[in-house]
Amino acid sequence: MPVPDQATLAKRARIVAAMRSIVPGEGVIDDPDALRPWESDGLTAYRQPPMLVVLPETVEQVAAVLRWCHAEGVKVVPRGSGTSLSGGALPLADAVLLGMGKFKKILRIDYEDRIAVVQPGVTNLAITQAVEGRGFYYAPDPSSQIACSIGGNVAENSGGVHCLKYGLTTNNVLGVELVTMDGEIVRLGADYPDAGGLDLLGVIVGSEGLLGVVTEVTVRILPKPQTARAVLLGFPDAESAGACVAHVIAEGIIPAGMEMMDRPAIHAAEAFVKVGYPLDVGALLIVEVDGPAAECDHLIDEIARIADANGATSSLISQDEAQRVAFWAGRKAAFPAVGRISPDYYCMDGTIPRRRLPEVLRRMEALSQKYGLGVANVFHAGDGNLHPLILYDANIPGELDRAEEFGNDILRLCVEVGGVLTGEHGVGIEKRDLMPEMFAPDDLAQQQRVKCAFDPELLLNPGKVFPTLHRCAELGRMHVHHGQLPFADLPRF
Q1: Which of 163, 225, 342, 434 is within CB 3.0–4.6 Å of 159 for a Cys-Cys bond?
Q2: How far apart are CA 460 and CA 231, in angstroms?
Q3: Is there a domain that residue 410 lies in?
């Protein structure tokens, strides 16, 4: 992480006083003990108490905080609910941690235009709960949806079990209100798809808090499908289940969700939630289809046929809504369930081409043996987004280091087979130093130029995403030949 700036630390008292003048009352936390709950996000292996925490309640306060910090050269780390699993909200010792938890109002719901306008602190699940009385819902549904905030979803471009058919956060956000590092309040997108102009909204979604602080989000809400049915398909091993996934998609069937769990994850989830998962299988697929009843019946039959051809040993179709929800309850509880069978686990996030799934699962098993650490696989099989859970004990010297190396090799494997480093958790600090595995130096430099366009002083969430952060002036250097600038007719800024 960046070395703390001693000049900033020396003026901490003045920074605290300035923040209290902008956000009065209990909006500023500076007591060392009170700062401890903020020292990490969901990637708890890394901890750093912030210099102070500021909890604004209005957009004007956010703008004022950023404007003051920009003028004084003080770094700012935005934070939502703190459920990030990549260290994206890890504080800095010399930075203001800007918590957006008080922005938790649903501002407007328009059923005719099928949108909801919400503040970033609203939880993912709360959007669905607010509109379900009228038969609508918000499609992206991360496993942490009961706690994760929509602002964090925008920062990380979060997914979920139903994103195979309905898309990630970027496919369901129509507009945002954003405050830049210099305190300017801007709006991107609109209340309708495909707003005119540059697609800056596409740049912001997934930018991990490096470009601005989101203070309002307009999301797409969808009518609840007429019918939804889920089927549990058991397989003798993860390879045959992975082959079934590829064949279902190859047949032109796009389920609403298609999730996979291997034997350790199945046993852990069943012991935790007791929903009737088969325990005599090596891998389990949960496949959901939705739409008109006749279409669902047809698709379930087709999926059962494909599963049988790929060696499925068991099949259980949900008979009512309660059973369908129960099937998903086990999958969504898989992470805490695995926490009952291992003192610690390291949740990975990488994405691969579906057709390489059997190969990747084989090679992950070999890596498990190499590092002497167990792994439970729970992932969004339909779109190739893997979430291996590496099991370790942090109390045993060296096991955390081995778990990290194991995880790094999994991510290198994802890139090797044509995939990417992350599907929905983001880069943060976890994958930052692996970025050169996927991107050439010129690629990374171009990405940093986008950062410089929004935040020239590099004050917003520094130390994340980029393995080597160049000063913007370095990226802007030009070769002068015989006193002549290249393209001298272009205006310089």
Answers
A1: 163
A2: 45
A3: no
The phi and psi torsions of 258 (rounded to 5 degrees) equal -150, 100
Phi/psi for 185 (5° steps) reads: -95, 120
Please report, for residues 89, 96, 169, 345, the alpha-carbon distance to residue 93 in angstroms, rounded to integers and kept in the order given.
Answer: 13, 9, 31, 26
Domain hosting 249: range is: 227-336
- Among 328, 161, 320, 173, which Cα is nearest to 255's? 161
pLDDT value, residue 490: 52
DSSP 3-state of 55: coil
Residue 209's nearest CA partner among 91, 38, 88, 120 is: 88
CATH code where residue 58 lies: 3.30.43.10
442 occurs within a structural domain: no
The verdict on residue 475 lying in a domain is no
- The CA distance from 327 to 231, in Å, is 8
- CA–CA separation, 21 vs 12, rounded Å? 14
Q: What is the pLDDT of residue 489?
A: 59
Residue 466 lies inside a defined structural domain of this protein: no
User: In this structure, are 153 and 235 located in the same domain?
Assistant: no
331 & 316 share domain: yes
Number of domains forming the structure of the chain:
3
Q: What is the CATH number of the domain that holds 216?
A: 3.30.465.10
Cβ(46)–Cβ(436) below 8 Å: no
Instruction: State the chain's maximal CA–CA distance in angstroms.
Output: 78
Question: What digits encode the pLDDT tens for the residues 263-318?
Answer: 999 999 999 999 899 999 999 999 999 999 999 999 999 999 999 999 999 999 99
Domain co-membership, 121 together with 16:
no
Which residue, of 203, 223, 243, is where some domain finishes? Answer: 223
Last residue of a domain, one of 69, 99, 129: 99
Structure tokens at 31: 């007591």
**Residues 90 and 48: beta-carbon distance below 8 Å:** yes
In 3D, which of 254, 276, 235, 252 has the Cα closest to residue 377? 235
Q: What is the DSSP string of 127-177?
A: HHHHHGGGTEE-----TTTTT-BHHHHHHHT---TTHHHH--GGGTEEEEE
Asked if residues 203 and 154 have their Cβ atoms less than 8 Å apart, the reply is no
328/288 Cα distance (integer angstroms): 9
pLDDT tens string 435-473: 999 999 999 999 999 999 999 999 999 999 999 877 887
Return the DSSP state at 382.
G
Contacts of 385 (CB under 8 A, 6+ apart): 159, 349, 350, 351, 379, 423, 424
Give the orientation angle of helix 357-371 with respect to helix 399-416, to 10 degrees: 160
- Strands 350-351 and 314-317, by their bridges, are unpaired
Residues of the chain with pLDDT under 70: 476-493
Together in a domain, 89 and 111: no
Residue 492: its pLDDT value, please? 45
Query: How far is Cα 449 from Cα 455, in angstroms, rounded to an integer?
Result: 10
